[in-house]
Q: What sequence folds into this?
């Protein structure tokens, strides 16, 4: 049984990660690997689409914390979109919306990237 | 009083089963979905901490997860024989400072305390460690 899946696509020079399933201490290394691969090829504009993300634990939150500083140093960002109330509550409980740009949908996240450039 | 029990190996791929086991029991006890999610996450964090810090990822050790329910009390007791742990050494992080300094990790226990009504650590005379996670059912979180 596959608990977690990541699909990667590119849109307007932004890399979009579609997450599906359960992000916990077991599956977090998979996300870490994908983000590390993007860093290695200097891709710093990232959207994480959480539409089909059913669950996140602190191990999953830790992966975003591991890369956000580097990404922003390179004038990029990790923007999170389409979160269910259940997943958003975990981010919110720990105050993560203070640090991360969490948008309602992908269009809004893309727009926020454009306003960064201008 | 009613007790349910699940034994798992100290591997992170077992977290999924623990969450399912605890979620089903919490749902049957009468918690709403929001409370069920909170309990499952707290138990996941406790098991992850044990696998990572007490067993240092050794995959052949055991965790014993017991659910004890009594009237309005839903208690999850996780027992292990790993490294002893001093919870008093862990202080709640200042989240503003944590986020602004881009720290990573160390949020598991903080989350458990935010999600549950009571979190307690016990060391038994035979050097077995227990993590107790308690959630009370109230009108607010009742289904």
A:
């Amino acid at each position: 049984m596959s608990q977690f899946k990541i699909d990667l696509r590119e849109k307007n020079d932004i890399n979009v990660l579609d997450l599906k399933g359960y992000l916990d201490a077991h599956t977090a290394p998979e996300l870490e690997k994908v983000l590390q691969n993007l860093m290695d090829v200097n891709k710093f504009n990232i959207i994480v689409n959480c539409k089909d993300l059913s669950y996140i634990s602190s191990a999953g939150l830790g992966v975003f914390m591991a890369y956000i500083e580097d990404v922003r140093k390179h004038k990029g960002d990790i923007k999170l979109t389409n979160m269910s109330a259940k997943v958003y509550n975990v981010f919110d409980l720990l105050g993560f919306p203070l640090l991360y740009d969490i948008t309602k949908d992908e269009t809004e996240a893309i727009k926020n990237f454009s306003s960064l450039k201008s | 009083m009613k007790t349910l029990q699940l034994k798992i190996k100290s591997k992170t791929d077992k977290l999924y089963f623990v969450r399912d086991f605890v979620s089903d029991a919490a749902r049957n006890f009468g918690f709403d979905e929001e409370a069920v999610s909170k309990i499952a996450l707290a138990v996941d964090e406790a098991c992850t901490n044990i696998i990572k810090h007490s067993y240092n990822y050794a995959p052949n050790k055991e965790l014993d997860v017991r659910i004890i329910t009594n009237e309005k009390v839903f208690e999850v007791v996780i027992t292990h024989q790993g490294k002893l742990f001093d919870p008093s050494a862990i202080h709640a992080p200042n989240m503003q400072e944590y986020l602004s300094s881009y720290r990573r990790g160390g949020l598991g226990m903080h989350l458990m305390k935010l999600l549950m009504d009571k979190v307690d650590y016990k060391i038994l005379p035979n050097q077995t460690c227990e993590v107790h996670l308690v959630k009370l059912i109230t009108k607010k979180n009742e289904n």
Notes: The two ends of chain B are 20 Å apart (CA to CA). Chain B has four helices and five strands. Chain B has a mean pLDDT of 93.
